[in-house]
Structure formats: C-alpha cells, structure tokens
C-alpha cells in the first residue's frame, strides 16, 4: 500500500516465512496421529489411539504433571517477588537503584547453561538433593527478571496523577495502593505470570542440570530423543498448543470487543 | 434543591513566604497570597511560572521548601494530602479507569466513611448534568463529560478549597468557552473557594473575581480582571494580558496630575495616578484598541497623546476589526485595532498616518520590556 | 460542617521521605535476597569450583577440593578454544540470519499492516505460535524433516542435487538453521515493538524531502527501530551462544558441531568434571558480558538495561 516494493513482495515473503515457522508445529500435530511402533519417525498410518491413551507412554504423564506443578509454583513465587521489585524500582527513590537494576538484568543476559551449571554447583556444594524443589527454586530465579521487566513497564505507564488523585480524595497510602495502583496493575501482573509459566513449562536446559532423577515434560523428550519420542508426547504438546492458542485468541477477541464497546 | 446541600462556605487560603526549590531551579520565590473565602481566584501565567507548583503545594502533593500554608486559619503545611480539606480537578482529570463514574465520584466520601455516599454522588452528578452516565466507565465519556465528572468528584466532598489545574486545557475552544460559563455558575451555586490555574488570559478574566499574574515564580500583579487589564503595572502584565504598545523614554516633567515623558523627541503624557513612577526612565503604554489612526493631517483633541509620521506597514482584516501595524521611524512599530464601523474599507498599506489616544488611557509601568512580546505570548499558548 | 470531618490541623511533622524508603526496602528485600541466594551465590560457587582440583585423598570420580588451581583455565582454553570459536561463529551467523529474516516480518506487521489491528494481532500470534509448542519437539521435527530418511533428502538425492552420501542433519548448516529457526520470534517481537511505535509521518516527510524508498529505510526507518534491533539481536545471540539442544547429537548436530553448551553439559553431567564445566561457564559468561556491554554502549541504548 505505502511502498510499491512492499505491495506484493512483502506479504508474500511474510507468508512464506510464517509457513516455515509453522512447519514443525504441523509436523508435531500430524505425527500425534501416527500409528507408530517403537519410533515415531516414518508415517505408519492414522490412529486416534495415542490421543485416547496418552498415559500409555511410560513416565510421560507424571513428567507432564511435574511440569505443571513446577510451572504454577515458580510462577506464583516469581510473580510475587518480581512485582514487589518492580514497584520499588518504578515508584521509589533509593540509593543503589542502578545496581539493583543491573542485578535484575544480568540473569536475563546469562546463558541458561551457565545459570543451570551455577545452580547445580551451588546445590552440590550445599549437599542439597536435586529434585522438584531445586527445579522450582531455579525456575523462580530465571522467571523473576522477566516479571520485573513486564510489571515495571506497566507501573511506569501509569499516570502518576491517578495516585495523586487518590491522595487528594482522602485515601491513605495503603488505600491508594490497594484501591488504585494494584487494580490498575493487574493486567501487567497477569501477563507477567503467563510469561513466567510459559518460560518455566518449556525450560529444558536449567531443568536438566537441577532435576536429578525427576522428569519434566522437556527432560522426558530429551531423554527419549535418542531412542524415539513416543507419539503421546506429540499429543500433549499439541493439546498444550491448542489450549494456549485458544487462550491467546480469546483474550485478544475480548480486549478487542471491550475496546469497541468503550468507543460507543 | 441539589445545590443547597453543597452551599457550605469555603475557607480562606493564605500562603506566607512560600518558596520551592527543585534540584537546579527555583520554582517559587517567596510567595505571599491571601485568597478570601468564597472567591473565584485565578493564578495566571506562562508555563514554568510556578503556578502549578503553587497549586500542588496547597493540595499537599508537594512540600514547600519554606513557608506556610493556612486554610481557614489552620496551618496545614505539614498535613498530608489525604488529610487536607482540599480537592483538586486535575489537568488530565485523573479519573480512575477501573471504576465507574459513580464509584469515581463517591471515592472521596467512602474513604471518609461518610454515610449516604452514593446518594451524595448522584446528587453531585445531577449538578453537572451527568447522572444518566453514572454506571459507565470514564473512558466511555467525551472529554467535556470527563471534565465534569472530575469536577463532581471534587465538589461532592464539599472541600473548603477547590483547586483547578488547567481543567479546560484539553478541551476544544468552543467547549472550553461553554465550560467556563458552567464552572462559574457552579461556583456561585456551591459557594466554595475556587483556585484556578491557567495560562489562558481570556479564561482567567472571564471566570475569576481576582487574578494573580505569575511570572518566574513571583506574582507580578494581583487584582480584578478589569483593573489588571486597564492598568497593568509591569511590562510582563501589559504584554501577557492582551496586547500593548509600549514606549520607553525619560521623564521630562512631572506634576501632581501628570507625568510627561520624552520618547525619541515626542512628548507623551501619562496621568500621575496611572503611573507607577514619576522620574527617570519610564516605560509608558496604551492598549491598541484605545488608539486611533488618522490618515493625513488631522486635528487632535488636547487631551490626547499624538505620534506623527507613521506609515502603515501591515494590515490584517478580521471582520469586526482591522489590526494595523504602523511603522514610526523613531518609535518602531505601533499596533492599532480599528473597529470596522464605517463601510470605508481598511486603510491601505503604505499610507502616511498619525496615531493618537486619550491621555486617560495611558499607563506608566514599573519596569521595562525585556523579552519579545509575541514570543512570550506563544510560550504561554503552548504551555 | 464540611470541615467537621477534618481533625484540627496539627503541625506534627511526618517524615515522608523516611517512610518512602522504608516501604522500598520492604519491597526490595525478598527479591534481592532471592537474587543473592540463587543468582550471585551460584555464580560465586561456579567461580570457586573452577579453581578446584581432584581430591587427592579420594578415588571417587567427581570429588574435588578447592586449591586455586588456576591452571584449569589454561587447560580449558587450550583444549576448548576451537569450540568457543565455533559457538560464537554459529551464534553470530544465526543472529544475522534471524535479523535478515525477521526484520521484514516485523516491518510487515508493524508498518504495512498499520491500522488493521485484527490482521496485526493474527500475524503476531502466528509469529509467536512456535513458543506454544515444546522447544525440543519442534527441533526434533526439523531433525526428522531434514533427516537422511526424510523426504527432502531422499528427493534431493534422487534428483542428484545432493551427493548420495550427503547429509543435512549433523552439519554446521543444520545447527545454524535450528538456532536461527528457534530464535526468530525473539528477533521479530522487539523489532515489531519499536516499528509499531514509529510515526509513519516521518516516512512521508522523508519521501516528501526527495528520499527514495531505500534511502528512507536506511536513514529513517532503520535508525528509529534500532532499540528493537539491539534487543532482538541480544535476545537471539545470548541464548544461541549458550545453546546445546540444536548442536546435540540427538537433535540437529553431530560430533563436528559441538558447541560450548554441549561441553559444559558433558563435563558437568557425564564426565563429572565439575571444575572444567565451571571454567567453561565462567569463560562463556565473561565473553558474553563483554560482548553485551560493548554492544549496548556502541549502539547507545543503555536505557535498555
């Protein structure tokens, strides 16, 4: 529309790039219906069996359950800690702000393998047995920085006049926070929590260093990769994909509808 | 009646020796001010003059570096914002987006656990004629409606003092004029003390009983709008409130009745009671609409100041009147507004003219012009 | 009446600034303690571990004692410098490739689709869709698509485009392909975010001032989207240089494509050579911090931090 070059070339290019991005998803989905024997590699025939008997693959469902528990727990912890940090950074003046910001930024710039190895070395030194607890501690750590960044952006975009209006209208500092600031931050906190959960659920590298014999969904896939991942894993991944997509699309539709309603 | 329950008397506001320093600059310099109860007071000035800071100090949103704030005779200098009997209508309205219009208006009453908060809120909404949108969210309202909700949210608390921080700044011109009248009407109905901050001189003059013109953290002049306009005391006020032709000269003679100033060889007279000073260098001035322009040679009455030898440089026709800029070799540019009462059409550029005005309309200032008039006016508009 | 609700004003001085900082400390303390305990302390123990030597009194594999064995670093660098080099070369190529592939996508969504909010949202969802499916599974999917038995390789071989003994998987190409693929959304999102805020009137002003479309892009659009490009490249480069899934034997890599991540993992979890894993981690971390600092300074986007 705006530039002749982009008129047809750019949409076509984007369409091709998006198809490339989506190929593995389609592949994973299709192979969840594969009537496989031992290895789910070549196409053997169509079946619903994998979908109706997901937990047949040994260890898969417990690994998936572990991933959910870890995701929820570490998300709750990271969201609480991170929101407090974000509020302090965005709303208060204190000495050492720069150092605190840096301390929050560095974990995001640290390769996961270093974080994983560092935590594992720490747990090893302290003689802490690896398992679900250590994985939750580790996930809370790397989700924390992402929560701070997301919530802080939301706090900074709040009009300070809203809080001033609260003070002007006889609300004590605590009332200003709980009746004005916090309700307005909820969307930011929710998206931070969703991001945390997604990061935790899909994390492999840090988990693998700190999980010991406990398996999560990603470590299950990694361990089975050498001898063939069961198609039931594809079923779970496809289900998670469809659910996530549904949540994202619904929330988009709702925000859009709400924005439209507000205009009228 | 809806108004009756709001008709509590407002309280005096007294600022004494207020000073506010921010890192790197001085926002307010030793400000003393008394706003009588029940009055509509305007703080007028260009952006950065310290008027909003003054308002925030009164509201308790900003502590003064020095000085005291008294409301109704009580020292509230160290009282937190949420304990002060003061409410503010914010420039951006600051309506809580997650609460309905009614919840917004009832917010202050509920924080003070006042019974019947919702019915009081409805009453306040009726006063601003918005009770029918009580259940909507603020974002669903137009700018003018949001402004009125912000007003209702403040006056429902019956504050001793209502502060308005450029409340009409975000509205378009027509709506702004309409809201000015409405605000004025509401103020006389509820009888509260209003302190209104604005950079719009017309807004200040239409609404306020008393206007304080602020510049560089100081009050330049304070008085009724007509007094300020007719008799400005400083060059800043003369330029900021309307337009002025200013002439700088030296006093050549002064009597009890009049002061005569020599301006580049021309003798101009100012009544002694309209001049701040009567010796030395003196800037005198006159409003463009008090001046008359005469083509060719004309007889001038004795009680007029006359300057001759001008040439029309610019003509700007605006229907009701025409603005002429007349260039004088010795005095520079003089602006004249002429009503287009007779159908003769405007005088053409290049015509040789003289300009005269009644001595009674002349004023003598305390100081001299230091900045360019139009630049200052533009700054004020942008602020 | 109106004033009745207000207690008589006292001149009691309340220490507002003090209180502010006390709240700040309460908010900061738990999070900072957590970061100290589970981020700083592990880094310190990693550094300590990197100086350890095998325990002379124990024959157990994996038993080490601290002895300021700085020679660990000499040995590590001497043995693994080619792998470090390979890791960073792979990561840089993948970052550049992701930028080249991702920028037009971001431009399409942020500028071309401007004003069509539903289409923008739809395309964005497609871009992030790979995140919704397991990282390992989508990488495995590529392994199978590009594998020796996959239809792509068989077709290419039957058309004699590829030699009969050729492979795609297990080569540097497939590892870089996997890295690029997996991190494209990280590149697209921040670039999109800065292009989305770009005022299109700048572009109109530029073309009004006689700039050709290419000049407009290079002189106006690209500089204004630099913050997005910087964060996108960092978000791609950092995880790519430490990644070991794509390069692993079981995924897209082979013995000749090992990256630092693979070596850290092998030393730590298989060989139980903790000091060597720690040495590699510390060196990797130092190099990456150096690169990030230099890059952020150079591009003048320090407020990113």
Automatic annotation (TrEMBL), chain A:
CDD domains to which the protein is assigned, alphabetical: TM_PBP2
GO biological process: transmembrane transport
Spans through the membrane: 12-33, 68-90, 102-124, 136-155, 176-199, 205-223, 235-254
Pfam short name (any one): BPD_transp_1
Membrane topology: Multi-pass membrane protein
UniProt keyword list: Cell membrane, Membrane, Transmembrane, Transmembrane helix, Transport
One Gene Ontology term, aspect cellular component: plasma membrane
Cellular localization per UniProt: Cell membrane
Domain ABC transmembrane type-1 stretches: 64-254
Family: Belongs to the binding-protein-dependent transport system permease family. CysTW subfamily.
PANTHER family reported for this sequence: PUTRESCINE TRANSPORT SYSTEM PERMEASE PROTEIN POTI (PTHR43848:SF2)
Annotated protein name in UniProt: Unannotated protein
Source organism of this protein record: freshwater metagenome
Automatic annotation (TrEMBL), chain B:
PANTHER family referenced in this protein's UniProt entry, alphabetically: SPERMIDINE/PUTRESCINE IMPORT ATP-BINDING PROTEIN POTA (PTHR42781), SPERMIDINE_PUTRESCINE IMPORT ATP-BINDING PROTEIN POTA (PTHR42781:SF4)
A single MF term (Gene Ontology): ATP hydrolysis activity
Transmembrane segments: none
Keyword Nucleotide-binding attached: yes
Residues in ABC transporter domain copies: 13-241
Keyword terms of this UniProt record: ATP-binding, Cell membrane, Membrane, Nucleotide-binding, Translocase, Transport
Statement: the UniProt record of this protein carries the keyword Cytoplasm: no
Annotated NCBIfam families: potA
SMART domains: AAA
GO CC terms in record: ATP-binding cassette (ABC) transporter complex
InterPro entries from the UniProt entry: AAA+_ATPase, ABC_SmlMolc_Importer, ABC_transporter-like_ATP-bd, ABC_transporter-like_CS, Mo/tungstate-bd_C_term_dom, P-loop_NTPase, PotA-like, Transp-assoc_OB_typ2
Protein name, per record: Unannotated protein
From TrEMBL, chain C:
Compartments where found: Cell membrane
GO cellular component, one term: plasma membrane
Residue ranges of every copy of the ABC transmembrane type-1 domain listed in the record: 84-295
Keyword Membrane attributed: yes
Membrane topology: Multi-pass membrane protein
Keywords: Cell membrane, Membrane, Transmembrane, Transmembrane helix, Transport
Gene3D superfamilies registered for this protein in UniProt: MetI-like
Predominant location: membrane
Bilayer-crossing regions: 23-48, 88-109, 121-141, 172-195, 216-238, 276-296
Gene Ontology BP term (one): transmembrane transport
Family statement drawn from the similarity comment of this UniProt entry: Belongs to the binding-protein-dependent transport system permease family. CysTW subfamily.
Protein name: Unannotated protein
UniProt source species: freshwater metagenome
């Amino acid at each position: 529309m705006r530039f002749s070059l982009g008129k047809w070339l750019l949409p076509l290019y984007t369409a091709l790039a998006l198809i490339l991005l989506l190929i593995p998803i389609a592949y994973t989905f299709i192979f969840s219906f594969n009537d496989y024997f031992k290895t789910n590699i070549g196409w053997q025939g169509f079946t619903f069996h994998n979908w109706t008997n997901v937990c047949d693959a040994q260890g898969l469902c417990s690994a998936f359950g572990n991933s959910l528990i870890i995701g929820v727990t570490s998300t709750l912890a990271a969201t609480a800690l991170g929101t407090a940090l974000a509020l302090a950074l965005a709303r208060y003046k204190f000495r050492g702000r720069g150092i605190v910001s840096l301390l929050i930024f560095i974990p995001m710039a640290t390769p996961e393998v270093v974080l994983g190895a560092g935590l594992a070395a720490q747990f090893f030194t302290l003689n802490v047995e690896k398992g679900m607890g250590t994985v939750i501690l580790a996930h809370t750590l790397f989700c924390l920085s992402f929560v701070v960044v997301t919530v802080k952006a939301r706090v900074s975009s709040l009009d300070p006049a809203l809080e001033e209006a609260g003070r002007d209208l006889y609300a004590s500092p605590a009332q200003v926070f709980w009746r004005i600031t916090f309700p307005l931050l909820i969307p930011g906190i929710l998206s931070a929590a969703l991001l945390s959960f997604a990061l935790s659920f899909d994390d492999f590298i840090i988990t693998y260093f700190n999980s010991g014999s406990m398996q999560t969904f990603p470590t299950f896939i990694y361990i089975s990769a050498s001898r063939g991942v069961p198609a039931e894993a594809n079923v779970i991944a496809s289900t998670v994909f469809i659910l996530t997509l549904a949540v994202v699309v619904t929330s988009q539709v709702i925000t859009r509808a709400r924005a439209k309603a507000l205009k009228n | 009646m809806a108004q009756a329950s709001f008709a509590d008397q407002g309280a005096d506001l007294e600022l004494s020796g207020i000073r506010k320093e921010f890192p790197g600059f001085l926002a307010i310099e030793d400000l003393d001010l008394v706003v009588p109860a029940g009055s509509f007071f305007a703080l007028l000035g260009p952006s950065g003059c310290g008027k909003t800071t003054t308002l925030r100090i009164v509201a308790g949103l900003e502590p003064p570096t020095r000085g005291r704030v008294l409301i109704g005779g009580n020292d509230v200098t160290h009282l937190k914002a949420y304990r002060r009997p003061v409410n503010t209508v914010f420039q951006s309205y600051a309506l809580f987006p997650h609460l309905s219009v009614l919840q917004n208006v009832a917010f202050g009453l509920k924080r003070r656990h006042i019974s019947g908060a919702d019915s009081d809120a409805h009453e306040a909404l009726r006063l601003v004629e918005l009770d029918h949108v009580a259940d909507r969210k603020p974002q669903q309202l137009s700018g003018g409606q949001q402004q009125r909700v912000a007003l209702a949210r403040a006056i429902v608390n019956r504050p001793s003092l209502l502060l308005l921080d450029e409340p009409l700044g975000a509205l378009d011109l027509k709506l702004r004029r309409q809201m000015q009248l409405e605000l004025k009407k509401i103020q006389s109905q509820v009888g509260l003390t209003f302190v209104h901050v604005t950079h719009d001189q017309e807004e200040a003059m239409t609404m306020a009983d008393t206007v304080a013109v602020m510049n560089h953290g100081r009050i330049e002049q304070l008085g009724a709008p007509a007094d300020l306009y007719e008799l400005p005391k400083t060059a800043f006020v003369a330029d900021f409130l309307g337009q002025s032709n200013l002439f700088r000269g030296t006093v050549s003679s002064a009597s009890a009745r009049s002061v005569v100033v020599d301006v580049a060889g021309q003798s101009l007279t100012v009544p002694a009671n309209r001049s701040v000073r009567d010796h030395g260098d003196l800037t005198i001035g006159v409003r463009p609409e008090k001046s008359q322009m005469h083509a060719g040679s004309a007889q001038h009455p004795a009680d007029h100041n006359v300057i001759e030898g001008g040439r029309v440089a610019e003509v700007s026709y605006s229907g009701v009147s025409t603005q002429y800029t007349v260039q004088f070799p010795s005095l520079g540019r003089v602006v004249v507004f002429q009503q287009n009462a007779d159908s003769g059409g405007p005088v053409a550029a290049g015509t040789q003219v003289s300009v005269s005005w009644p001595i009674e309309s002349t004023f003598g200032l305390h100081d001299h012009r230091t900045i360019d008039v139009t630049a200052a006016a533009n700054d004020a508009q942008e602020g | 009446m109106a004033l009745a609700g207000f207690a008589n004003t006292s001149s009691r001085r309340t220490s507002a600034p003090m209180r502010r900082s006390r709240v700040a400390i309460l908010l900061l303390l738990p999070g900072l303690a957590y970061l100290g305990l589970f981020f700083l302390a592990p880094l310190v123990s990693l550094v300590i571990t990197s100086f350890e030597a095998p325990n002379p009194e124990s024959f157990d594999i994996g038993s080490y004692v601290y002895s300021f064995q700085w020679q660990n670093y000499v040995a590590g660098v001497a043995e693994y410098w080619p792998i470090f080099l390979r890791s960073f070369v792979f990561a840089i190529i993948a970052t550049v490739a992701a930028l080249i592939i991702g920028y037009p996508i971001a431009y399409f969504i942020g500028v071309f689709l401007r004003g069509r909010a539903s289409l923008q949202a739809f395309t964005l969802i497609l871009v992030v869709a790979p995140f919704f499916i397991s990282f390992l599974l989508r990488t495995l999917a590529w392994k199978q698509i590009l594998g020796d038995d996959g239809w792509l390789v068989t077709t290419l071989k039957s058309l004699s485009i590829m030699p009969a003994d050729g492979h795609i998987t297990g080569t540097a190409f497939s590892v870089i392909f996997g890295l690029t693929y997996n991190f494209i959304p990280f590149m697209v999102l921040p670039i999109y975010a800065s292009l989305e805020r770009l005022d299109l009137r700048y572009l109109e002003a530029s073309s009004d001032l006689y700039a050709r479309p290419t000049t407009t892009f290079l002189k106006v659009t690209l500089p204004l989207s630099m913050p997005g490009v910087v964060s996108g490249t960092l978000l791609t480069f950092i995880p790519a240089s430490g990644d070991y899934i794509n390069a692993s034997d079981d995924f897209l890599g082979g013995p000749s494509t090992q990256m630092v991540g693979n070596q850290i993992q092998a030393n730590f979890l298989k060989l139980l050579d903790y000091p060597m894993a720690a040495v590699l981690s510390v060196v990797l971390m130092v190099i990456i911090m150096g690169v990030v600092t230099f890059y952020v300074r150079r591009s003048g986007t320090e407020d990113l931090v």
